[in-house]
Amino acid sequence: MAAAQPSVARALALLVASGAAIVGMVLLAVCYTGIGVSTLTSQNDDMDPCVAAYSAGTDSASVRYTAVPPRAICTWDVAGEPTEVVVASASTALFAVGAVLAVGGVLTSVGLLVAPRLRR
Q1: CB–CB of 105/19 below 8 Å?
Q2: Full pLDDT tens readout for the chain, 120 residues
Q3: Straight-line distance from the first to the last Cα atom of the chain, in angstroms, rounded to the nearest whole number
Q4: Is 97 exposed, middle or buried (0-12, 13-18, 19+ CB in 10 A)?
Q5: Side-by-side strand order, sheet with 81-89
Q6: What is the pTM of this model?
Q7: Where does residue 85 rank: exposed (0-12), middle (13-18), buried (19+ CB within 10 A)?
Q8: How far apart are CA 19 and CA 28, in angstroms?
């Protein structure tokens, strides 16, 4: 009967791994939300010419977002030549820590849950 019960060490490892995954996902959410907020507030704070053109609704300016690294890039035409300006970017260290915790925590949790079933 004791063999059917999960060990305390396995349960503790699962708790730590799932906690790390949650913390990592929260850090990633903070990074991506911060990019959106920084892009919106950049229209009010120090108006870059590209952001001003985008806010005015001109067709020559556009804002795109990249997932890795998380940042907002404004692209516009200056005298027929495309120019890119990074409007907002997340901390690389914060993003890296969040990604490692999220991916590592999820993989470890899945491994701890699936491994005993594969041994049967």
Answers
A1: yes
A2: 455 566 888 999 999 999 999 999 999 999 999 998 888 887 776 677 888 888 787 778 888 999 988 999 988 887 788 889 898 899 999 999 999 999 999 999 999 999 877 776
A3: 16
A4: middle
A5: 61-66, 71-78, 81-89
A6: 0.79
A7: middle
A8: 14
